Amino acid sequence: MTLVFGERSGGRSYWALDVSKPNPAEWKVKWHIQGGTTGFEELGYTWSKPFFTRIKTGSSTSKEVVIFAGGYDPMEDGFPEGFDDQNNNGKWDTGELHGVTVGGTEGYDKWNPGMNTMGRGIFVVDLADGSKVFTPPTAPMT
Amino acid sequence: MLHVFTDSAVTFGGVTYEAGDEIFAFIPKDLLSRLEEFSLIDTHIYTVDGSPPFTGPAPEATVHITT
Prior knowledge:
The structure holds two protein chains of two kinds.
Chain A (H helix, E strand, L loop, with lengths): L1 E5 L6 E6 L9 E7 L16 E6 L5 E8 L52 E5 L5 E3 L8
Chain B lengths: L1 E5 L3 E3 L2 E3 L4 E5 L36 E4 L1
Antiparallel strand pairs in B: 1-4, 1-5, 2-3
């Protein structure tokens, strides 16, 4: 039995614990996925609740997987006004272009689309070892 | 921190736990370096904050998992 959890506002990780043994003292970390590492560059803060299922990997083979969405980018906490975060500190600073929208996020990050890759993906990973099985292709941000 | 509680009396490794006792806790490695922040500032620090679903059949003694 495997327990998988993210960290929501706490961080960009998913942790899988092997909780098969009755005695909790024997439970082990099965795998760990860290957002920002190779293959998981776009994984943001891990708000997405993991979904367990089995997918076909061939005509007669299948694999147990965990599916989760790309998470959250705290840069978007800049609601309601979009700004060009030139020094990438998450805050609007004097001199950085910023927009004024009424009650919405319409103009958010319009000058800085490259910062929006965090959290846009969907990840399918192998339940056995946390390796990435599939992630949908993403178009370049324009 | 991830917390696990038992809802019935159970014995593990010679230690007996009553219903409601905590039987397991886990702090992810990537959050250890942030624990000192609890003593430094007044605002709440988010660490392990996610829902913990699990696969497979439930064990005989039901455990309740929270974060």
